[in-house]
Amino acid sequence: MQGNLFEEPLSLPTDPPAAVAVSRADAAPATRRGAARVRPAPAGEDWRVLAQRLPAPLRFGVSTWSYPGWDKLVWDGEYAPGVLSRHGLEAYHRHPLLRTVCVDRSFWRPLTAGQYAAHAAQVDDDFRFVVKCPASVTDAQVRGDEGKALRPNPDFLDPLLAVERFVQPALAGLGARLGVLVFQLSPLLLGWLGRPTALLDGLGRMLAAVRQALPAHAPVIVAVEVRDPECLGQALVDTLGAHGATFCLGLHGRMPPIEEQLPMLRALWPGPLVCRWTLNRIFGPHGYADAQKKHGPFDAIVSEDLHTRAVLARTIRGIAGAGQPAYVIVSNDAEGCAPLSIQKLALAVDAGPQDESRA
């Protein structure tokens, strides 16, 4: 089967799974007294039937959610980014296709258990969070405000700090709503890339500590994302496999196209899919500012990537269709509007290979 993995579609369930068929709008928690009310877009309900046809283990979500441009797609009204950042998740999670979200801000600064709990209070029990380990642990360099490397980071891959600054607060605040812990290794200097054994030994020690800190039967996925193609290969596969972790597909200008990363998942099969589609390759490895300038206000598909979408849809069908969890996070920087990209991906997954290029 491994040779055909992610190449041939698997049969999808014809009846909606019970957990998905129940309207999450009906199960959503009440808004806290005094909190700003963000209304969900009524048009989101148009996607409920499609959502019920998708594989039950599949969760689509966005990378951050504070975008006023998603009016009529996710929100019913124009809200300030600050309001959406603080109070938008309740409306966001009512969209049938949006069953997860990536909390990116934990990468820039560790969050407290209370901050995680504030997010969890806005969603229902079926929702799951993808959270990123702080760069203070996963970046080999201490960087300035503009991202320039200043000096080596003495806390790089520190097992104790990974647990104390990240795993424990996330578990305490999110509880059963915690879905994926992502450890994104920032771009490495040649000093580390030239010492792959030392790098993977350090990564292995950190992953061992993380696994030990997680409850024995907690269905939390541990995923590692890299930003250097040199890291791809059997040695990384062996390290991840030894510690019950998976490889996060990083669809980004610094990394090879999706089809060149899929061998990592095949080598770890059977296992979950964690994918972060964060930047269209046309913008190159450092093109976030250019993507933001071209795509704002993030209300339309501007830089369509049919190839990545088709291969990703096929991958989703193979993995989620086989019953494995699949978390797919999409950024506005991928095609211009993350919710619209997710709609097109969902249509492609449902349509099958014969029609996915037209979705």
TrEMBL record:
Lineage: superkingdom: Bacteria
Pfam (any one): DUF72
InterPro entries: DUF72 (IPR002763), UPF0759_sf (IPR036520)
Protein name stated in the entry: DUF72 domain-containing protein
Protein species of origin: Castellaniella daejeonensis
Taxon lineage: Bacteria, Pseudomonadati, Pseudomonadota, Betaproteobacteria, Burkholderiales
